[in-house]
Amino acid sequence: MSQELREERIVKVQHKDGLHMRPAMQFVDCASQFGSKINVYKEEQCVDGKSIMQMTMLAASMGTQLTIIAEGKDAAEAVEALSKVIENELDEV
Amino acid sequence: MEILKGIGVSPGIAICPAIILEAEDYRIPQRFVVRKQVRAEIQRLRQAFLDAIEEVSQMQGTQAEIWDSRIKDIFAVHLHFLRDRSLRKKIADLISENFYTAEYAVSHILRDIAKHFSQADDAYISERVHDIYDIEKRLLRHLIGKRQEEISNFSEPMVIISQDLTPTQTASFNQHYVKGLATDAGGRTSHTAIVARSLGIPAVVGLGKITQTVASGDRVIIDGTQGTIIINPDESTIDDYKAMAEEMVEHETALGELASLDAKTTDGTKIDLLGNIEFPHEADITLKKGGDGIGLYRTEFLYLDIDHEPTEEDHFQAYKATIENFGDHPITIRTLDLGADKFTHYGHNIRERNPFLGLRSIRYCLQHLHLFKTQIRAILRASVFGNIKIMFPLITNIMELRQAKWIVEDVKEDLEEEGIDFDHTMQIGVMIETPAAALIADHLANEVDFFSIGTNDLTQYTLAVDRVNERVASLYTPAHPAVLNLIRQTIQCAHRAKIDISLCGEMASDVEYAPLLIGLGLRTLSLSPPMIPEVKKVIRSISLDECNAIARRAMEFDTSKQTINYLREEIRKIQDAEA
Predict the structure, then answer these.
(1) Does B453 score more than 50 pLDDT?
(2) Cβ distance B301 to B278 under 8 Å?
(3) B546 or B128, greater pLDDT
C-alpha cells in the first residue's frame, strides 16, 4: 500500500444563503473528481463530502465553520479546490 | 390472502396485478415484506432509482431550451440525490433491517431528511424541504406504478384501484389492458360503475379502504358479481376463480346467441332495447349485443378528454363516427350534461355549495350559449347521416325547454343561410329526471316529440339522496314508491299526448325491473350495452299479461324492500322455468 496522504483545512461558508442546493452540488461535483476520501466536519457532525444528501444535511448557513479532511494521493489538491467552493471563490450565477 | 367486501356494480371476474391510481398524497402505510423478499424489495428500490434518473435525464434533454437556469439547477440537484449512493444505501439498510416495503422505506428516509431541513433556522435551507418532497414523490411514483396521466400507456393487463375514478381518468383507459376496477367510494350508479358496465369489465365499489390495503403490483381478484376483492389470493383460490370465470364466459356465449333474435314477449309484443353509450366505439358493442339503436348518447367525454373546449368539428366527427354503422337505427344525443360530478379541465369551475342543485347540465348550457350552439350545430350537421334525435337533460320548467328549442331554431336558420344541409324533421325530446319535470309532464308533452326518463337523477332528486355518498347510498333505490309513481305518471302523460317514451337509467339495466317497466307501459328501454342480452332473455320468456300483473302488484307495496323482494322472486321464477 502506498502511503496515504492526509490534508485538513478549516473554512468558513461565504455563500449568503448558506451551503444550499447549488453550492452543495458544486461541492459534491468537485469532491467526486478526486480519488481521495473526503470528509466534512461541522463541529462533531461528520459527513461524506461526495454525498449530496449528507452535505445538504449539514445545513451549513453563512458563516458556519467547516473542516474539510481529505485522505488519499490527491488530498492536497482536493482540499485546495474544495476550499474555493466553500469560500465562494467560484462564480455564483 | 385478504378478502374485502364492497358493492359489486359490474359482473365478471378479473385476476390481475393491481395498479393504484391517484395516490397524490402518497401517504404510505407502514407495511412489511417477508425476510426472503428483502432482496427483491431492494432490487425494486434500485430499479426505481434508475427509472427516476432516466426520467429526469430525459426531461433535461428534451426541455433544456425552455427552462431557465434555476429550474435546470433544481433538476440537477434531483439527479445528484438520485445518484447519491449513500442515500440509496440508507434506504436499502432500512429495508433489510426492518423488512419494510421499499415504498415505506423511501417515504420514511426522505421525510426524515425533509424534517431535518425544515427545522433548520436558515430560511433558505428550510426551503429545501420542497425538493426533498419532490424527490420522494418521484421515487414513489416509480415504485407505486405509473403516473396518472399515463393510464393510457399501460401495456399489461391490470386492475385499477383508486379512491374514486373521475370521468377524466376513465376516458383515458386503454380497454385492452384495464381488466377490472375497485374503488374506496361509490355506489351502484357512480361513474366507475357506469364505465365498468359499458366496458364489460368487473367492478366493485364502496370498499372503504382498499387503496390503503392493496399495494401496486399485488395480485388481486375482483369478483364484480359477488362484490368481493381478494388480495394476494392463494393458488387454490385462483384456480377456483379461473373455473368460475370460464363458466361465465360460456354463459355469455349462450346469451350471445340471442343477439340476432328480437326482444319480443311470448305473446309477440316488441320491446326496443337501445344502448346507453358514452364513446363512439360503444356503438359497435351495442350492435353486437343485439341493440336496436342508441337511446342515450352521453356527450360529456368530448369535454373531458381533451384540454381545450371541443370544436364543432370535434363534435361532428364523433357523432358521424357513431352514426355510420347504424343505418336507420335511432340515435338519441343528449346535450352537454356537465357540472355537479363531472368537470372539465379548462376552467368554468366555480366551487358550489351544492353542485347537484347548482349550475349544471341544461342550466349551464343556457348560460354558455356559445358552447351550446356549437354542439347543436354539430348535431344538426350530423343529422343528415342517420336517424338522430336530440334530447335536453335536467329540464325543470317549461321555459328552459322553450329557450333550448329557440336556440335550436336559431342554429337551423344559420345553417340554412349558410346552405348547410340538416334533417329538418329531427325530433326533440326532454329527459324526465327531476320530480318537477315528472309533475309537469303533461305540459312538457305538448312541446316535445319524446320523453326519456332518467331514473338515476330522478331517484336522487326525489329521495334527496346523493347516489355517490356511500353513507347514504343504501337509501337510494328506484323501487321507492315515490319514484315508481313519478315514472308511472310520466308514462301515462306521454301516452295521452301520443308521444314516444323510453327509460334510460341504470334501472333499465337491471333485469329485475324489466317486467315492471313493461307492465307500466314502456316499450323502449335504453341500457348499458353488455346487459342487453340478459334483459332480452327475460323479455322473451314472459308475456305482456304477466308483466301487467307484476306491475299492478309491485305498485301496491309501501316499502321499496317489499317491491324489490317481490320483483326478485318473480325473476327467479322466470329464470327457473327457463332452466
Answers:
(1) yes
(2) yes
(3) B546
